[in-house]
Fold:
Amino acid sequence: MAPVLVGTALAWRAGEAKWPAAAACLGFALLVQVGTNFANDYYDFVKGADTAERVGPRRAVASGLIAPKVMRAAMIAVFAAAFALGLTLLAYGGWPLLVIGVASIACGVAYTGGPYPLAYHGLGDLFVFLFFGLVATGATAFVQTGEPSLAALLAGAGVGALASNILVANNYRDVETDAKAGKRTLLVRWGRAYGRAQFAFSHAVAVATPLVLVIVGAAAAWAALLVALVSAAVAIHQCRRLAAVRSPAECIALLGQTGRWLALYGVLLAAAVVVAG
Structure:
């Protein structure tokens, strides 16, 4: 929801907000997120990444709540619904949106599925940053304004950085079980110290984003400064929590906190853009 909210705020500031298009973008983003989670649940089970040793939130297939074939069918159905909803956006942005939509769905499947699963080769963080940050924010603004926006890409960088931090918190917990399953995340490759550095860098990007938006004239200075200060305080708190993690339960708690912060950050950043209009 965060990138769609920020992209729509930028469109509103430009006097081009189109609420039916914004609603369709939101629906598409949510369906792709759900479909990707269904794909992860299914493919991680098939590939052996979800075992009895896993300590994260319970997965439906691995725990026996859902049969693998049912989860696979649900995944296909949700992605098909996303594709159908995405087609309605072609009237606003033309064929580029078809490319973006198909790529988003393909990467949702390829995240843990297919012959070269992205998450199993250390590419999950990059694709989360791209698709849940730059692409989602930029495309939402493009659908409504009809033209590419530098401000939307800059704003998307902050959103995408915090989205990738959710992945860091998740993978920080699962280093040992991921390594056994052959899931070569960046933390499996380079260790938890690297994970803490990436987590801090992503927070730094989120802190800088509202200030950069002021430079390009897309956010009110006082509001952007307030967002940056709040972001810095949250960054210090969450980085300290990650460094102090000693149990899977602490990682799970931080994972939830990281997701909630992304949601709030999206609201604050959108507000900083709106008040500048």
Observations:
- Residues 19-46 form the longest helix (28 residues).
